[in-house]
Amino acid sequence: xxxxxxxxxxxxxxxxxxxxxxxxxxxxxxxxxxxxxxxxxxxxxxxxxxxxxxxxxxxxxxxxxxxxxxxxxxxxxxxxxxxxxxxxxxxxxxxxxxxxxxxxxxxxxxxxxxxxxxxxxxxxxxxxxxxxxxxxxxxxxxxxxxxxxxxxxxxxxxxxxxxxxxxxxxxxxxxxxxxxxxxxxxxxxxxxxxxxxxxxxxxxxxxxxxxxxxxxxxxxxxxxxxxxxxxxxxxxxxxxxxxxxxxxxxxxxxxxxxxxxxxxxxxxxxxxxxxxxxxxxxxxxxx
Length: 287
Ligand code: B12
What we know:
CATH topology of the largest domain: Rossmann fold
Helix content: 55-70%
Strand content: 5-15%
CATH architecture of the largest domain: 3-Layer(aba) Sandwich
Structural class: alpha/beta
Strand order of the largest sheet: 4-3-5-6-7
Distance between the termini: 66 Å
Oligomer: single chain
CATH class of the largest domain: Alpha Beta
Bound molecules: cobalamin
Number of helices: 13
Largest sheet: 5 strands, parallel
Radius of gyration: 23 Å
Order of helices and strands: HHEEHHHHHHEHEHEHEHEH
């Protein structure tokens, strides 16, 4: 059955956006792509309706029309605001090596979802999918790097935006030999948003350097992230050479750490969603 197309009055009624505004959005921002009848009348599709509804919701959240329209996929596909749909759109874009669509889906994810939901429900699962597909040889190094690099750029921008220093200083580092750094970056942003001052030392940080810096900046917590089992071993060796670290709580997390390992190292183990992790770290500061 052919798709039923709407005239401007009908799309205006469906979306609650005045016809003049719709025409302006179409002419200035190119966000609507109506067909024309033989007589030159505009006819809008269901995709146009969805795009207008999506823009309307972003404007209600405080975005400007220019910003919101830039977030829409240039290829003209649907505007998304559901975590599962955003995950699927990102995965498809990565598989298709469609770099514009990867950027657009990431923009939409960070624009429409609360930060913790964007990170826990879209970015983490997609990174795991991309990394696993790379490990299995289904994605090239280029495809994996294209998504990791873009995610990192978004996270770096958020890191700059979310400044705060009411809860104390947290020093973050990947353990020695550890290059899985995106989880740590997510933790850094979440802590900044919660009001911490954060010094993120990033991948492959020698433990002595991290402890020395944590003392110098008067940190209350020092977090090590470890995803590789070999990095757990290296962290074990390095921590064993310190008798005691006074005044700073050492916390470990990441995919390869367990409560038993943390107990053995004499450090604190924290796990959970990013919101739960931040809440536990906040409590830890008080103890
Ligand atoms: C993406 C990925 C990569 C990317 C890393 C991109 C990057 N710069 O981060 C690339 C492709 C480069 C990569 C490389 C490698 N990888 Co890899 N990788 C993954 C994958 C698929 C996902 C990791 C990830 O980003 N998860 C998403 C983040 C958000 O989760 P997260 O790191 O766990 O962090 C969350 C929490 O743990 C927490 N958190 C993190 N740190 C901390 C710290 C504290 C203190 C706290 C409180 C919380 C916390 O916060 C985050 C948000 O919730 C995993 C498998 C998987 N499905 O998990 C394998 C995996 C970790 N990789 C693995 C391996 C073996 C490698 C390589 C050695 C492969 C190779 N042959 O070269 C290299 C080694 C790189 C190195 N030296 O570190 C193995 C590790 C096996 C093991 N147990 O030792 C895994 C498990 C894959 C597998 N099944 O074999 N990898």
